[in-house]
Structures are given as C-alpha cells and as structure tokens.
Amino acid sequence: MERIYRGNVIVLSMAWVVVAIVGCGRASCQTLITDPRGAQQTMSAGGASVEKEIKLGNAYLGGHGAVKDEKLAAYWFEKAAEAGDPWAEQQTGYFYQAGIGVAVDAARAAHWYQLAASSGLPRAKTNLGVAYLWGNGVPLDKQMAVQLFREAANKGDGTGATYLGNLYHLGRGVSKDEAAAEHWYMVGAELHDPVADYDLGTLYSVEDHPHDFRRAADWLRKSVGGGYVPAIHSLGLLLENHPELARSDRESLTLFEEASGYGQWRSSEALAILYGEGNLIPRDPKAAYYYFQLAILQGAKTPKEKLDHVMQLLSTELGAEQTAKLTAAAQGWYQQHRENVEFLLRKAAKRTPPGLAIVTPEEDLHAGQIITAPPAS
Questions:
Q1: What separation in angstroms does the CA of 355 have from each of 26, 31, 258, 340?
Q2: Are the C-beta atoms of 30 and 61 separated by less than 8 Å?
Q3: pLDDT digits (tens, 9 = 90+) for 42-81
Q4: 3-state DSSP call for residue 55?
Q5: I need a surface site. Which of 212, 224, 265, 346 has the fewest CB within 10 A?
Q6: Number of structural domains found in the chain
Q7: Model-level pTM greater than 0.85?
Q8: Domain coverage including residue 42
Q9: Is position 93 within any domain?
Q10: Distance between CA 325 and CA 71 in Å, rounded?
Q11: Which 8-state DSSP code applies to residue 356?
C-alpha cells in the first residue's frame, strides 16, 4: 500500500479514540477522559450517568480497573450514545464499523456517525464522509462525501482535509485538480495530520509534480515523526535513491528495518534485495532469504514467478537445512507480530503515553481494504 511505488493514494483513519485511565478502585473510580472535543474532565462514581457510562466503557475497552471486555465496552458507550453524547455516538459508530464488541453493521455505524456529525463533531463528519464515499451503510454519494470532508476540514479536522486532497488528486467527486489537492494537503499538514505530511512528501518526490527531493524528505520525516508507518518505508526508499539527503550512511537501511518490523512488505523485500545484491551493504544470503520469506508472509504483491525464481536461487546456495531454519524463523516472527501488519499512527508503545487506548483503522481509497490497528494498550 505504498504510493511511493505506484502512485496510489492512501487515505487514513475513519475514527480514533484516546482515553487515559488514571486510576480505578472497587468503591470509586477517577478517570481522565480526553475526547476529540479537547475537553478533560475528572469524574467520580457520583457523577452524571452519561459520564459514568463513558467511564465504564473506557475501563472495559482498555482493561483498566476491570477485566477487558469489548462487548461491555460497546454496551456502555452505546448507552452514553443513546443519551446524546456526541463523542460516545462517534465511538459507537466506530464499534459497529470495525466490529468491536458488536457485529459489523455499516448502517448502524453510519447512523451513529450521522448523529455525532449533526452535533457538530468534525471527525464524525469525516467518518460519515467515508461512509458516503464508499456507500457503506448509506447510498454512495461522492458529492456528499466531498461536502462533509470540506465541512470537517473547515472545522479543524486534518483527516477531512487530507481526504479532500486525495479526492482532488484522483478526481473523485470533484474535477481533478492538483493545485487544490496540494492546498488541502497543506491544510491537513497545518492541522497536524501525518498522512497529509506523507502525501506532500510523495507529491514532491514521485507524482506528476515538479520534484523537490529535499522538501520531500522533510515532509516524510515529519510524517515519520507523527507516527505514520508507510512514511518510514517511503523515506527509506527516497534516501536510498538520493543518499545525499541521508543523515547517515545507514539511515535508509535502518528505516527499512523499522518499517519491516511494522509489517511493511515492501521494506522487507527491499532488505532482501539489498542483502542479496550486496552493493550498498555486505552480501548476506541468509538475511536475503529470511526477508524474502517475511515479505511473502506480509502479503508481497511481487509476481509469484519472480519471487519463486529468486528464492530458488537462494535455496540452492544455502541448502535445505539452512533454508528450513530461516523459513521457520520468519514464520515464528510473523505469528508473534502479525497484529503490527500495516497499522497506522502511533508506531510503537514508546510513542504512546502510558494508559492511552488508541483505535485506528486504515482504508485504501482504491481497494477499500480495512487494516486493523494494534490492540488498545
């Protein structure tokens, strides 16, 4: 799913929630809730019923002060949503969209997004726009999607601005307009959206746009800093092709290794090629074979006959016993880390403050493929 290779556009999350649990006991519970409205409230068990419902939903969602239970989390958030809390409406819509604690139901997801959007929640407008863009739970209506993304962006949602930039870039629901696309990407970047940073980096490096590789590297570095995993690979590829922009001789290799660890098959394949050729780094056929196996497990889209040919050559060189060990090692790693595959935002626990629960799906504008995030911490 890398635009740096094939010019596709990645669009980002339909919803994300940040909840910080600061302490909970049997008799009382003190909870700090940070919601998309920017409000922070310290609540006790004696607070309003909606606040208690949200508190319980948070506790069950993250397993803080209670046994983690997604069904109970969804139940309590929906109770708060039924009482008219916009943030709970948004979260309930996401639960129905992603099938967290409830059966997937696109119509119910759109219903709750509609209610949250009607209350003026900017991110809910973006979520509802995604539903109209794909016809998920509502009639397909790209013009309505454009309107909702524009409203969300104008209310300060960087996600909506980035979606809008992608639609102008592709000419979906609007006339294709690269200047407008760049404008909305800039708006998204100003609103601290790391995917907008990624899109700008891509725009300046590989799209039908005057190239400025230094600016491209700057934008991609910013996206990496914001936690957008595909930008790690893209920056590595840019630095491999333009080593004069690298901060060290090994920077591109380090970026490929990091992105591979987060499930980016293109980075695994890039490492396999680098180790197999031995041009920029010492040749290591064992590492090459391992990373080719890992790329396949991560969903490599390289033609099978090409991979089979390369793997056969390496297998002959290494021998059956060695290749069996390397295959087992790649499979073992993948089984332990498959939840990391292609996730978006918040690359690692060290980037996530203790107690934060982050829920983020990802959707490719072309394929409509949902990619789940790692479990909430």
A1: 19, 11, 24, 19
A2: no
A3: 333 334 589 999 999 999 998 988 999 999 999 999 999 9
A4: helix
A5: 212
A6: 1
A7: no
A8: 10-119+352-377
A9: yes
A10: 41
A11: E
